[in-house]
């Protein structure tokens, strides 16, 4: 089974502190990691490889630094990587990103599955997975939470939707975007790390993927960010201390009054 | 001349229009009014009761494009995308919005790629730019820490998915009239390589998190898995849904569909109760647009209190039983009064 | 002996108010005073209410308070953040609880001498937050660094997870300004790297658990901040194999890791289960967590490779590598959640802090297994293998009544401490003796040793006013 996994390197947010005064995130010195949701896709890919054999190619569009993310994925158990990197790709929105990644996947050649994280924790759009499926005209399941059955020709999956799960059957090749429920990502091992260090990861530019210059980077992006601003996050409402029976009673009574005032109960 | 309409993608389940569609109509109505164009709902399905279709008009649609076919009964991305692409080619709307639901977030990107349209995900504010008439789409970015306003200067249509529950459903006006149009589809639109075999209801999800008016969410401060029953009970008393922080989902205290935050769901209820949740940035991203936030946490310095309209510093396990009991009394009282 | 002390009177409280101001005295407010009645030792019997809480702002005020306390014969218990684990900050005879919480200024960052001067009430991690941008760091690293105060770290000579490479708190204390039990304000040491002028009073005061004086200024040595770090999580089939690797790592590898943490089978299995962690641990009987830090990524990478290879050559089942925040956090979570995982079994626990020579860890774990069998209580054992400092934690068997628990716990502890002593160990590595372990001191110290300490205490604090009832009894 040949599996392609597009991943993204994102800023680590678990360790991020808030600036007390402005209520904004302190982003200096923030590490870059593999998008946490992509780890689920990587784990699913590795398990399928363990079951069926074959290979996993992980690709990422980003600056040179994104090579770290690719090597980490290889350390976990992916076989090869491709970095799509060039200044011309900069400023891409989800349209241009989906186009670029789908061009790169075309160059990779035949495959059975494309696995994507449901979305990236920085952009938080979830549009690139379905976008690649659209460009490559692949059958698609988004929000995939379980692989119920798979053979060389078809796959049955559960798809997490409002109020339950859909059971879908797709022919291969197809594209799945996966949610956390689907797997628990493994940690890279020392042997994996050593292997990842040695593998030659090619860097592809626009010509390597036969990209139409008008479709990539900022130029290829239909959307523009007009402005960004900080929402007021601080509400700093009333805060009561409840440590013993008496103060608990009092706090609960006040809370109920508060909820009544706001017509919430 | 009614070219360049504003469209909403209406959603139905078993022929019943989903609330998110009325929320979209409410938003889109003001956009259409500002642009002085018609507002249309696009509704795909099969055997949809006439009064359901009519309801879209009562809720603000000037037109309903009704496309019914067996294949369209349930959401399947390929035929839904093909139909919507065909409709866009035929009628040339300037704006197409859908809910940021599992459906909207799947089909809109699929369509946007094919139409080379600009698409913005999970918007919380939509407006029209003075002078140009461009759609201004505002969405939380970088984990909700900043809001970004995005527009699509040239490409058309302008597309966006909109956070469910971020606006009230449009009011019902039975005096409204509108047109129901049933377009004839070309061949090849209704093919799906993906087959839907079944729908498995997840009762543990209870009321859908994203549609609930009240979300009661538990975090590590709840102490242990067994204590989650208090969260569930409180949610039940308040008629709400159960949410959870990533940490407790990771620990297996509750399943992933309940997770609120950056790698889970984003919710916008009227009341969000954060119980034993410290308020990591990833969690805040998923709930900060809630109307009212109540926090209960042992740590007086927990980040969550900065966001809370009402906070109690204390052990959730001491406070919850008292709160549940008193809320039950309140409910009983109201019932008695209602009987009188 | 508590009869020697007088009760706190309104008159005394008025005088305290004169010194520190009325809003810095808590008196007659049980709810607010309750926060000062305990530290992080969970058992209620180690808690005791103060009669009055004072929050002085500087050395002068503390000096006046101490003089007053000697005059009125009222015990004074100094307190930093109250995150201790031996009852050291608990006013066991009531009296005055002296909290340094208002003395929380970083007075000076001396970049030329790589020193900082701080007040005792500064949160330890705050120091690092402030100096990080200058490429500096303070290497004291207690596990509670986000809440504990530096003053408490000095009093307990706190250790923590990075001690093998960086040592414990005392190594970084170059000078102290303190108020003596009798009220004099005295300075010892300073920003001098070498100093043999007279007795090394600074290091007598470090770790004195607040019985010999109250620190008011602390001179800390700073180091250049390491910018890269990585962790290895190494699975072994048994304790012997795991522990045998530790000296090999330190000698053959010629690398001093920042941490070598050990977890026995029951510890990591409980924690993994509690966290829902899916690392395959079924085959493993012991786990090491090895952290390396350094100048740059490449260096750290080559060091963890060397150590990892050593582990594999010496019988490791698997070596996992974490070199970014997400994965590092994931494996440290296993180590940090052992105690919490056992709270699900029972909230009644006694967190111990024994130290044995590293090579004796396997014998200790074997001896512990016998105690576990004999008394039928879980005792997960985990901690700082690189220092031989193990947090064996006696957990109440949930089937036992409280009476039975209280009856057997002293027996379990006595046997555990005796075992420790036999193996050349001692009963506290970093948490201190406080009130919790003082009755076991005789298992590891003889009367002569105790008497030397008593004479020092007597010389400096003739009325036994400052933090009485800690470490040892005076007679």
Automatic annotation (TrEMBL), chain A:
| GO molecular function terms listed in the Swiss-Prot or TrEMBL record | electron transfer activity
Q: Which cofactor does it need?
A: AMP
Task: State the superkingdom.
Answer: Bacteria
SMART domains (UniProt xref): ETF (SM00893)
Q: Which SUPFAM superfamilies match?
A: Adenine nucleotide alpha hydrolases-like (SSF52402)
> Electron transfer flavoprotein alpha/beta-subunit N-terminal domain spans which residues?
22-213
What InterPro entries has UniProt attached to this entry?
A: ET-Flavoprotein_bsu_CS, ETF_a/b_N, ETF_b, ETF_beta_N, Rossmann-like_a/b/a_fold
Q: Which Gene3D superfamilies match?
A: HUPs
The UniProt similarity line reads:
Belongs to the ETF beta-subunit/FixA family.
> PANTHER family this protein is in?
ELECTRON TRANSFER FLAVOPROTEIN BETA-SUBUNIT (PTHR21294), PROTEIN FIXA (PTHR21294:SF17)
* Name of the protein: Electron transfer flavoprotein small subunit
Originating organism: Mahella australiensis (strain DSM 15567 / CIP 107919 / 50-1 BON)
Q: What is the lineage of its organism?
A: Bacteria, Bacillati, Bacillota, Clostridia, Thermoanaerobacterales
Automatic annotation (TrEMBL), chain B:
Annotated FAD binding sites:
220, 245-246, 259-263, 276-283, 297
Q: Which cofactor does it need?
A: FAD
Among SUPFAM superfamilies, the record links this protein to: Adenine nucleotide alpha hydrolases-like, DHS-like NAD/FAD-binding domain
Cofactor descriptive note: Binds 1 FAD per dimer.
Biological process according to GO = fatty acid beta-oxidation using acyl-CoA dehydrogenase
CDD domains per the UniProt record, alphabetical: ETF_alpha
- Report whether S-adenosyl-L-methionine shows up as a keyword of the record: no
Tell me the domain of life: Bacteria
Keywords of the record, alphabetical order, are:
Electron transport, FAD, Flavoprotein, Transport
Q: Does the keyword Ligase apply?
A: no
Q: Name one GO molecular function term.
A: flavin adenine dinucleotide binding
InterPro entries from the entry? Answer: DHS-like_NAD/FAD-binding_dom, ETF_a/b_N, ETF_a/FixB, ETF_alpha_N, ETF_asu_C, ETF_asu_C_CS, Rossmann-like_a/b/a_fold
Looking at the record, which segments are called Disordered?
157-178
Ranges for the Electron transfer flavoprotein alpha/beta-subunit N-terminal domain? 6-194
Query: Record's PANTHER family?
Result: ELECTRON TRANSFER FLAVOPROTEIN ALPHA, ELECTRON TRANSFER FLAVOPROTEIN SUBUNIT ALPHA, MITOCHONDRIAL
Family, per the entry?
Belongs to the ETF alpha-subunit/FixB family.
This one is known as: Electron transfer flavoprotein alpha subunit
Q: Which organism is it from?
A: Mahella australiensis (strain DSM 15567 / CIP 107919 / 50-1 BON)
UniProtKB/TrEMBL annotation, chain C:
Q: What are the protein's UniProt keywords?
A: FAD, Flavoprotein, Oxidoreductase
> Which intervals hold domain FAD-binding PCMH-type?
46-225
Looking up SUPFAM superfamilies in the UniProt record yields: FAD-binding/transporter-associated domain-like, FAD-linked oxidases, C-terminal domain
Recorded hits in InterPro entries, A to Z, give: FAD-bd_oxidored_4_C, FAD-bd_PCMH, FAD-bd_PCMH-like_sf, FAD-bd_PCMH_sub1, FAD-bd_PCMH_sub2, FAD-linked_Oxase-like_C, FAD-linked_OxidoTrans_Type4, Oxid_FAD_bind_N
Q: Which cofactor does it need?
A: FAD
Q: Is Lipid metabolism among the key words of this record?
A: no
Claim: Lipid metabolism is one of the keywords in the record: no
GO MF annotation, one: FAD binding
Per the record, the similarity remark reads: Belongs to the FAD-binding oxidoreductase/transferase type 4 family.
The name this protein carries in UniProt is FAD linked oxidase domain protein
Protein species of origin = Mahella australiensis (strain DSM 15567 / CIP 107919 / 50-1 BON)
């Amino acid at each position: 089974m040949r599996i392609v996994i597009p991943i993204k390197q994102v800023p680590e947010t678990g360790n991020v502190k808030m600036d007390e005064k402005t209520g904004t995130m302190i982003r200096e010195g923030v590490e870059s990691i593999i998008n946490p949701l992509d780890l689920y896709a990587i784990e699913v890919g590795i398990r399928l490889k363990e079951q069926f054999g074959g290979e996993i190619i992980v690709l990422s569009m980003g600056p040179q630094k994104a090579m770290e993310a690719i090597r980490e994925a290889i350390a976990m158990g992916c076989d090869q990587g491709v970095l799509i990197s060039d200044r011309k790709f900069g400023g891409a929105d989800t349209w241009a990103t989906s186009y670029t990644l789908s061009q790169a996947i075309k160059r990779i050649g035949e495959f059975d599955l494309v696995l994507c994280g449901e979305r990236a924790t920085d952009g938080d759009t979830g549009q690139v997975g379905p976008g690649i499926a659209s460009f490559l005209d692949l059958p698609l399941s988004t929000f995939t939470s379980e692989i119920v059955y798979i053979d060389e020709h078809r796959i049955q999956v559960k798809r997490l939707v409002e109020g339950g799960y859909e059971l879908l059957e797709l022919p291969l090749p197809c594209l799945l975007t996966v949610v956390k429920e689907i797997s628990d990502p493994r940690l890279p091992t020392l042997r994996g790390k050593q292997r990842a260090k040695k593998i030659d990861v090619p860097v592809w530019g626009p010509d390597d993927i036969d990209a139409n210059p008008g479709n990539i980077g900022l130029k290829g992006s239909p959307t523009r960010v007009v402005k960004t601003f900080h929402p007021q996050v601080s509400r700093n409402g009333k805060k009561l201390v409840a440590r013993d029976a008496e103060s608990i009673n009092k706090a609960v009574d006040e809370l109920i009054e508060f909820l009544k005032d706001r017509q919430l109960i | 001349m009614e070219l360049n309409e504003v469209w909403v993608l209406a959603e139905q389940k078993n022929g019943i229009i989903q609330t998110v569609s009325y929320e979209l109509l409410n938003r889109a109505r003001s956009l259409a009014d500002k642009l002085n164009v018609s507002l249309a709902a696009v509704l795909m399905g099969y055997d949809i009761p006439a009064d359901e279709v009519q309801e879209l008009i009562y809720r603000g649609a000037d037109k309903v494009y009704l496309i019914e076919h067996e294949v369209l009964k349930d959401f399947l991305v390929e035929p839904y995308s093909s139909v919507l692409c065909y409709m866009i080619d035929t009628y040339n709307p300037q704006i197409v919005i859908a809910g940021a639901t599992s459906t909207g977030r799947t089909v809109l990107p699929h369509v946007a790629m094919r139409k080379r349209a600009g698409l913005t995900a999970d918007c919380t504010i939509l407006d029209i730019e003075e002078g140009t008439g461009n759609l201004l789409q505002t969405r939380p970015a970088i984990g909700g820490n900043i809001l970004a306003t995005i527009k699509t200067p040239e490409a058309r249509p302008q597309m966006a998915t909109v956070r469910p529950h971020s606006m009230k459903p449009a009011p019902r006006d039975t005096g409204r009239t509108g047109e129901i149009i049933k377009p004839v589809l070309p061949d090849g639109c209704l093919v799906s390589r993906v087959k839907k075999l079944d729908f498995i209801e997840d009762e543990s999800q209870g009321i859908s998190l994203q549609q609930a008016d009240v979300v009661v969410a538990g975090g590590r401060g709840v102490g242990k898995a067994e204590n989650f029953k208090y969260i569930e009970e409180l949610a039940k008393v308040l008629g709400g849904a159960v949410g959870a922080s990533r940490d407790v989902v990771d620990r297996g205290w509750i399943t992933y569909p309940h997770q609120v935050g950056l790698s889970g769901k984003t919710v916008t209820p009227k009341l969000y109760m954060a119980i034993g949740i410290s308020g990591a940035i990833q969690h805040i991203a998923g709930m900060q647009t809630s109307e009212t936030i109540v926090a209960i946490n042992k740590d007086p310095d927990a980040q969550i209190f900065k966001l809370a309209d009402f906070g109690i510093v204390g052990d959730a396990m001491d406070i919850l039983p008292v709160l549940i009991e008193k809320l039950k009394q309140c409910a009983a009282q109201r019932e008695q009064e209602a009987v009188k | 002996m508590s009869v020697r002390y007088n009760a706190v009177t309104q008159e005394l409280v008025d005088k305290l108010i004169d010194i520190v101001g009325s809003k810095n005295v808590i008196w007659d407010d049980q709810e607010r005073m309750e926060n000062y009645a305990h530290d992080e030792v969970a058992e209620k019997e180690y808690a005791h209410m103060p009669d009055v809480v004072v929050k002085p702002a500087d050395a002068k005020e503390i000096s006046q308070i101490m003089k007053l306390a000697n005059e009125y014969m009222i015990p004074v218990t100094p307190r930093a953040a109250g995150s201790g684990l031996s009852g050291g900050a608990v006013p066991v005879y009531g009296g005055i609880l002296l909290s340094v919480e208002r003395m929380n200024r970083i007075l000076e960052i001396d970049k030329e001498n790589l020193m900082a001067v701080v007040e005792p009430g500064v949160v330890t991690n705050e120091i690092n937050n402030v100096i990080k941008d200058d490429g500096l760091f303070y290497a004291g690293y207690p596990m509670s660094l986000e809440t504990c105060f530096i003053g408490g770290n000095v009093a307990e000579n706190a250790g923590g997870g990075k001690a093998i490479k960086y040592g414990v708190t005392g190594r970084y204390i170059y000078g102290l300004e303190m108020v003596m039990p009798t009220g004099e304000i005295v300075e010892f040491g300073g920003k001098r790297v070498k100093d043999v002028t007279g007795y090394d009073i600074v290091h007598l005061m470090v770790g004195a658990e607040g019985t010999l004086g109250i620190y008011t200024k602390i001179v800390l040595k700073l180091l250049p901040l390491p910018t890269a770090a990585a962790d290895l999580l190494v699975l072994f089939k048994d304790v012997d194999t795991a522990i045998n690797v530790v000296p090999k790592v330190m000698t053959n590898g010629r690398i001093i890791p920042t941490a070598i943490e050990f977890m026995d089978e029951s510890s990591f299995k409980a924690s993994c289960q509690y966290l829902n962690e899916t690392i395959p641990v079924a085959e493993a009987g012991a786990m090491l967590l090895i952290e390396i830090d350094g100048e740059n990524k490449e260096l750290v990478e080559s060091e963890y490779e060397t150590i990892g290879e050593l582990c594999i050559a010496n019988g490791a089942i698997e070596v996992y590598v974490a070199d970014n925040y997400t994965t590092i956090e994931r494996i440290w979570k296993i180590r940090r959640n052992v105690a919490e995982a056992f709270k699900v079994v029972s909230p009644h626990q006694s967190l111990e802090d024994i130290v044995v020579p590293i090579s004796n860890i396997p014998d200790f774990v074997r001896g512990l297994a016998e105690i576990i069998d004999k008394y039928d209580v879980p005792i997960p054992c985990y901690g700082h293998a690189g220092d031989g400092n193990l947090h064996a934690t006696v957990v109440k068997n949930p089937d036992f009544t409280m009476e039975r628990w209280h009856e057997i716990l002293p027996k379990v502890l006595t046997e555990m401490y005796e075992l420790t002593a036999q193996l050349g160990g001692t009963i506290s590595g970093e948490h201190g003796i406080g009130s919790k372990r003082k009755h076991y001191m005789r298992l590891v110290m003889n009367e002569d040793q105790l008497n030397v300490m008593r004479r020092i205490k007597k010389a400096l604090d003739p009325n036994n006013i400052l933090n009485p009832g800690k470490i040892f009894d005076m007679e």
